[in-house]
Amino acid sequence: MKTRQKITAWLAGACLMGALLTGCAGTDAQQDAGSGTVNTGSGEPVAQADKNVQAVASFSLAYNENDGLDPLACTSEENKLLSQLCFERLFLLNENFEPQMELCASVQRNSAKSYTLTIRDGVKFHSGEQLKPSDVVYSLNNARLRDDSTYQEQLSCISSVKYSGSEIYIRLKTAKSEKALEALLDVPIFCKGSEDDEIPDGSGPYKITKSDDGGIHAVPFEQWSGGVIQFCDSITLQPIANSAGAVNLLGTGQLSMLVQRDAEETAASGAKYTKTVGTSRMHYLGINCNDTPLDNKNVRTALSMLMDRDTIAQTCFAGRADAAALPAKKIPDGVKAPSFNQEAAVKLLKKAGIYDRDNDGYLEIRGGSDFKLQIIYNKQYGTKGAVLEQYAKTLNEMGIQTKVIPLEFEECQSRLSRGRYQMYYGEYEMTTDLDLSSIISRNGDRNFGDYRSTTMTSALSDLNNATEDEYDTAYQTYLTCFAQETPIIPIVFERRLISAVEDFPKGFDPWPDQIFHGLGSWSATS
């Protein structure tokens, strides 16, 4: 897949911009089948009662003509969604970003930098070729080495991927726990040798075909290892030039479903039904840890406790975000996150020598100077400005004189690189293992505040080197350390918005990297 492949030529002359095509009812053979299997995302098929599945009359998705369907290089939300229909992965991430086996059958930890994997038997590509270890190795090496791959950073910790017989060997540059590695391997797998095909050869539940009338459709893959798909026997693909075109098509009823990633995007008009699904995109406040009094961990933690994240998620993000006091999708039992607590924040500030010494309503630091804060952000993003204004209002009411400064992107970057800031609003697309090393480790390329802590370094090292039995304890220790140190102030994790004009199918239960999770049991809404 050295060049991005498109199917634009297939669309020439096709009149697909009208009403949704009908006739997606399942065939009699499909309707009458007594049993089958469904790929649940855990790697183990389960029984399916086909009689409970009612096919939809029609279903339509967008295809971005300017992007292509290369699963490693496509960047539009529309084509990423189609990629999830056509390709499977070694692991899928559930709603808490916990890895679940899909194509992988087993993982053996040889050391913190060496792992052996095997793959499931009986998996076939759309071409009929059997899935082999060589296909997995080829896919992973393309994903981590190709310049146009969107998975390069995610897989940058891998030094080599090889196979021998039925086993796949992965060596890492840096230590990773088993769970962390599994989370990183949510990469589309394709058949080696299909890189020059118009559409790479995947093993997903649907494959792309051209109909006699010139239209482009996704049809069920009859040899899919997950079983017989009865939801729809032909999904229409509507061509668009950009995401705005997809929003317009949904508004006119020509799309069945639309996925929007950026919380800054306005929800599509005409969408009567919506759902959200988590992402690894974290919003946070970066801190200049060389600046007094921000060099004091009690001050940083107090500032975190003055962030009303739940209100921010509901108002500034209109529910399209999850409040996040720690860099985790799910807080383990035994870990105390710095929740919104003004009284506790005042106590921590006083412990750091910050309180209203002269009863003028403002807090002073040691030496008598007023505690003043400036927070910079890229003024291009209105949501960030709204978050900071709400946060600044709280801080000012507490006696911390806070000023929000909107800047052009270039000026923001210049100030960060020179350390000329106190706090900044950051947005970070974390890799799927939710690793924050680039921001909080000593040599991290995003550690603009020069944060250094031997305690945090040790906690990170223990987490990355943890065996399966040690992982839960190491993870709790890491998050507890983060809560005490507060090297940055997490705000929220963004959520993708899924919109539909008609109700979502029965059984619709999207996961972060697989909106079609449980597709085998989807059924029309009666």
How is this structure best described in words?
The chain has 526 residues and is α+β, with helices and mostly antiparallel strands. The chain has two domains: 286 residues, Periplasmic binding protein-like II (D-Maltodextrin-Binding Protein, domain 2), CATH 3.40.190.10; 218 residues, Dipeptide-binding Protein, Domain 3 (Dipeptide-binding Protein, domain 3). It has 14 helices and 21 strands. The strands form six sheets. Strands 15, 16, 17, 18, 19, 20 and 21 form a seven-stranded mixed sheet that branches. Strands 3-14-13-12 form a four-stranded mixed sheet. α7 runs antiparallel to α9 and α13 runs antiparallel to α14. The two termini are 42 Å apart. The N terminus is likely disordered. Keywords: Signal, Transport. Belongs to the bacterial solute-binding protein 5 family. This is ABC transporter substrate-binding protein.
